[in-house]
Amino acid sequence: MAEPEDRVLMLIDDEPAQSRLITALAAREGWRTLVVRDSETAIATLGTRQGMQLGAIILDQWVPGDEACSLIAELKARRPALPILMLTASSSPLLAVEAMRAGATDYLIKPVAPDRLLQALRAATTRETPNDELQPLTEKLGATLDFDSMIGAAPAFRAALAVAAKAARTQATVLIEGETGTGKEMLVRAMHAASPRAKSPLRIVNAGGIPANQIESVLFGHEKGAFPGAFERHVGALQQADMGTLVIDEIDRLAQPVQERLAQFLSRGDVQPIGARHSFRLDVRVIVCSNANLRDLTAAGLFDQTLLDILTVGAQVLVPALRNRAADIPALTRYFLARIGEQPGLRPLGISDGALSLLAAYDWPGNVRQLQATLFRAAVFCDGEVLTAQDFPNLSTMVGEAPRIAPMISEGAGVTLYTADGNLRPLEDIEADVIRLAIGHYRGRMTEVARRLGIGRSTLYRKLSELGIESAA
Q1: What is the Cα–Cα distance from 33 to 30, expressed in whole angstroms?
Q2: Domain ranges of the chain
Q3: Are 344 and 97 in contact (CB under 8 A)?
Q4: How far from 34 is each of 1, 31, 180, 227, CA to CA, in Å?
Q5: Rounded to an integer, what distance in angstroms lies between the CA atom of residue 239 and that of residue 219?
Q6: Which of 140-149, 167-176, 223-232, 451-460 has the lowest mean pLDDT?
Q7: Cα separations in angstroms, 142 against 93, 339, 342, 430
Q8: Residues 313-334: pLDDT tens digits?
Q9: Which CATH number describes the domain made up of 155-318?
Q10: Helix, strand or coil for residue 86?
């Protein structure tokens, strides 16, 4: 692969505006972009001096799907180690499946955010990033929209759901913190669906995917002529979400002046677009998400103290990393495989105990989103009816020859019977784990939990109180 100082990106695209945008974005990361307009030129370029320096290819799917996949296969056959990213306006899972089978490394849906494009390039070309099944995949299965659909019995996860479910019924500002890929957007959508504003607008703004010089206008709006290039009036996201909910993802990426403006809005409830003479009041419920700990950023002088104080007055939800809820991996895996099997071009698959052990032994830096992408990719290439450890070759390499099979089986069941010194755990602790497992297995449907445990609903709630177990029901 080409070294960072002479990385060359081949862009196969016949749209001049998009070519200029991708060229400019790639240049931020030190890429020199070679633009070609058709498949014949692309194939011929592989054999040239410039072609031998290629570090990656981006292909715009401007030809019919079958032809695009044929081109990917041809490029891959000639240069097997070269990462290929397909850029398309189609959200069809079937096209994603075909592109991946043809050899695409990743699948990007237009319009793609600048950060998403750069992240995909980094992931595809960084030596430390595992290949194949660990590449992030933009094509997602539809997000679940209710708390009952969320899989997980880990205490920290159930506690997060309990806080979120309670906060959903209020009008308070909510701060959701958690690593990338832990499911913060899914939680946000569940909160909106369970809130009094469920039938009102939901607007999501990803601060990390918007240029710093545009984010203030995106949030607050601007008047025509407010600044050079403001040829038309723009209605900000806050106004678009009036009477509904605005979600600001990656709030830690906001510039401090914008943080200060947001703090003023949350305090007073009025907004003044850039260039406007007067402000006006809005009724917007604001939910913010952060991949980083805002208290740490504030202590380092990187986040506005006033805004933090406002955000922490309301509900605070901490979504745990997947490595901290490894016992949920078997249930999550089976759930994702069932949904993946419903996608065009795929079929339902089982999974072996060995494969589950392997999945549980990995620490999942990309969290639940990475697990889903890993299973999707494995399902695409699986020829049998059951996924085995052999379907995750890179995981096997990283985890080693002896994944934690015995501990995983115990964790997969959700209940540990023995302490570290080999003695039985107290009955009360085991009972609490069984109840947590049931709550997660039946997705918080407490009537079903009580029925399956063979106890009355009132008895179940009494035990929840006695054992200190939180519930999102």
Answers
A1: 10
A2: 4-129, 155-318, 323-467
A3: yes
A4: 16, 10, 32, 34
A5: 8
A6: 140-149
A7: 11, 9, 11, 35
A8: 988 999 999 999 988 898 899 8
A9: 3.40.50.300
A10: strand
